[in-house]
Amino acid sequence: MTYIPPKKFTTDKLPATGEDGDMAFHDTLKTPLYWNNGWHQTTDGAFVGPIDLFLIAGQSNAHGHADVSGLDDDQLTTNDVLFHTSWHHGTSNASDTQYYIDWSTDVVAGETTGTADTVPIDNTKFGPEVGFARRAKELSSTKAKIGILKYAVGASQLTADQDNTTNNFSDWDLTATGDREGDALRGWKSAVTDGLSKLTAAGLSYNIKGLIWWQGESGGTVDNYKALFTHMRDYLDKPNLPIIVTVINYVDSIRDKYFQLATDDDYIEYVDSGEFGHMEHGGNPNHVGAIGEGGSPKDMFNIGMEYANVFATMFGESPIAKIDQTITFPEQPTKDLISGTHIIQDVHASSGLDVTYTSSDTSIATIADGVVTMLSIGTITITATQAGDNSYNPVSATQTLVIADSLWNPEFDNGVASWWDASDTNSLTIESGTGTVTEWRNKTAGGPDFVQWIGDADQSTETVDGSDLDTIHLNNDALKTTILTNTQAEILGFTVDPTKQKDLIWYFVARVDPSVEQTTMPNNNEALIWFGGSTSSAPTGTLRQHILLNTSNSSTNNLFWYDHLASNTPSTILYHTKNATYPAATSPDWLMIGTRFNYSGDNMSTWQVGGPVVVDSALSNDPVDTNVNIYLNKYQKTLEGEWGEIVVSSSTDQATRQRTEGYLAHKWGLIARLPSDHPYKSNAPGTGLWTPSETTTTLWLDADDAASITHSSNAVSQWSDKSGNGTNMVQSTASKKPTLTNNGSNSLPTLTFDGVDDSLLSTQSVGASQAFTVYSVVRNISQSTRRDYLFDGTANDTTRCLISLNQAGKVMIYAGEIPGSPGTDWGNSNISTPSGFFIVAAIFDGSTSQIGVNGTHISNIDIHTNSLGSMRMGTNYGAVNDFFEGDIGEFIIVDGVDPQSNIERIEGYLAHKWDLVSNLPSDHKFKYSAPTGPTGDDLHWTPDTVQDISVWFDAADLDGDGHVDYSSPGAISSWNDKSGNDRHASSAVGTPQLSTTDGPNNGRVVKFLKNQDYMPVDGSFFVKDMFFVFRSPTATWDGYGGPLGRNPEAGNNLRGSNYITQHLDTIFHSNQYPDEVHKNGVALSGNFDLVTIDDYMIVRVVVNDNDTTDNAYHMIARVTGLSCSLDIAEIVAFGSKVSDADADSVEGYLAHKWGLEGELPSTHTYKAVPPEL
Fold first, then answer.
1. How far apart are CA 867 and CA 728, in angstroms?
2. CA-based diameter of the chain, in Å?
3. How many CB atoms within 10 Å of residue 636?
4. pTM above 0.85?
5. How do beta strands 268-272 and 243-247 pair?
6. Interval 660-698: pLDDT, tens
7. Taking the CB of residue 952, how many other CB atoms lie within 10 A of it?
8. pLDDT digit string (tens) for 468-501?
9. For residues 713 and 289, is the Cβ–Cβ distance under 8 A?
10. With contact defined as beta carbons under 8 Å apart, do 125 and 68 qualify?
11. Backbone torsions φ then ψ of 579, nearest 5 degrees
């Protein structure tokens, strides 16, 4: 085929006529070209000549079934391209039902495709014209305006003898007449005539440039195609009209026809639809770009562009000028390592083509299918690449991803008072040229800094696990702080003001060299750290002094704490000796030491991590020196050693202490020093939420983990097991695959099962023995009375166990060969299936099985004793009925009966992750905050973190093991103390009753009847400060009494001296010894009037000091031999008055636990949130 491309000229006149290839001129137009009977476009872009017209014809794919919703906004419209379309349904006659849509001046997706109904335009679909218009306009294949004329008939055959006699579809037969035989060809001619006549009527000329043919699934022979194309060319008077045929690649015989056509005809080329998703999924999508068939709409857009590329090549304009594209790649957020994966989102190439990703450092993170798997802390560069194609040039864009150290450090300790860290070079001032450390700054705001004092401290390094940490080397050198301000002194406990005394732990990481000769106590002592007064040459003063000493005494090295009293006489020197637990003279070694100064409690304790804690019960109470300094490495002599880190914290609870030790041990390479049972022996403490990865799971499926889902266009073929056991859930049949959706609560993805035939099958035996525990987050959509099986075995035998979410409208479990009727062999939770998302937990353990829904459990359900082998999800064992209709977000199996602590943790994890916290009962341990840390319990404040707790009784935890009970309501004989002091109420008098619904917020409560029920408390002790959650079930007190009282001792008729006594009506006995009474966080006065007594309340009572002796006659619900009717939810009592801050914490804890936060005043510290560590 010969093609004469337009040429560019620079003159400005245009004659009326010309010969092909002639140039002519016009006064106002620039350099048009006369060719093919018309003037073409001028160099200034003005249109003066015929339209370059392209025809599209064929079956349903030419008509267009791609979804507009799948295109980017910038792909929807191509302006200044003319478009005309016509069509009719394949089972109707063109003469009766053919539609004609007049020419438009733009090609707009959603305005180019007709329907088979009376409404002509389907605004949800588009065909190849949208991408073709965009690319044809961009390319240099034409200098004229583009026009597209489309006609297509779905399911049309090539010849009449190919017709399905049942459906009698239209065909393109050249000779057949009547009915639908030859009807598609007649319709095409009609469409062409209509479109061309309208162009002529509008005063526009045209040049028919080419034909796109997309038909073939119902095709004929090669000769049939040749005959049809010859007929079309003759009809158009274009004997060498370029034609592009579309290869239907999934059937060899059809594909080969097109190859033969292209071989035999110099003016025929082809485009392979298989490269654009056609039939790539076992027959789907039949229609390219149809989302409902598993297609991608951009495939239809791209095949349209490819037609334009091929035409350009046919017209002799190769190589094609490719288009530059861009990638939109937003900045990536900093991620914590503990979160595991990160999904790259909102990345788009302007071409609409797929983007791939690479990581600059695969030792830090790998990337697959847009999911970043984080392996270690660090920074990677993510490169997003679009490789380009026949239309677009390649392009790439980058963003950095910072994977942060998600490990705990003292920043997360709200009680940190001072923190010096030599490994943080930003905290050091180093003299240029000498390396001398002149300042070691405090990392807490306003804390004291160390400065150079004696000699020249040097910066050094310590290699830990291949990384260098900076340290401060002191060789007969010393540092000291500037004189502490009053505020700094108070924060660090250097005061004898009883209102400002502190309870602090100092943590030290340091190394001393035992090879440097030391002397023994008490003379010529070398101090690692010393607190004292200040002179210019040596520390002096009358302040109590705490000196950490290293001495060399024969072959052992001992630690001493030395408490120096004001008189400084030998008789008043108290020092505390630690066992020798670190190396002797020949090996300098790092020490990690903790020392607790409880100034308010007048005692101290010290320990080297890995050794025993030594507790001593005396601290001096010397007055404060007004010039307080802290000295490093110097008391009477200096020593040689290095400093790594010092942390001072008022958080004395065990959890924070262990986190601090774990942080220091892992950071400074001292893990071996941690005892084997230390919670951070294996892993450093983290700040992230607890997840099931911290426990041993048999199966763990998580729809929120994109890396665990294998799908094509959201049809899920595999849900991979995160437990590490490889028990994946799979489905190979397309129609039975559940759908990945964003239906989940908290906008998380779920797997949606259609209730018709969707299901998944395990790739191997689950291997859960009897017993096992199952957890899941689900939503049951059907809400019918049919059986909706969450999961089942794969055979009706002894490996069959199941959960039915809608058996008789209830949540049920079953184990056994043949299910019986509901309520007999089935384990019925008696809990109706919730309408939204909920948490189901079940223990399969024969007669002691258990079902829980949203944290409310029914125990001792009797079912068969079975183990679970292979498993089906979403249907019954035979996958023939009982299909589940709804969503599954997460599914976990733990082998064995999970302990109550783990049940609560997993329920808490699921509730907070899936926004189901409101479903948990008010007394659930994780109602108000998610489980955190390696044990799941790290950051939860509880009353036992307050010093001097005496007794603690909790109706939600009768056995006192720290976990919510799920025992049935009824009479109780004992109530265990949770304080750790073993002061249990072990032998009830009368029949106190546990109610599981009458408590605060419909929770648990122990009920006592007047003068009948009470519980003696074991042990002899004293209480000063008491907190109660209780009510009287009657409108007025029906007698004397109280939640916790003291009975008269033998021969002593005092009325419960120092303890609460409620009088008749609502008044405390004002002469019965309270110093303070608070109701719901508000202090009462006068007679301490409680006002309303039949509503649950938080009452605090601080008794006076008339009698401070221990007493062995404490009672729950009984005072001085009298009692009144009480419903008691919780009692917490302390042997001394707690601080205002601790009192707020106790009240906040009780309020949020029991749903009474609304009763707290608006100014209360914990009105909005519960206390945390």
1. 19
2. 136
3. 15
4. no
5. parallel
6. 888 898 888 888 878 877 777 766 776 556 778 777 889
7. 23
8. 778 888 777 888 888 888 788 778 877 656 566 6
9. no
10. yes
11. -60, 150
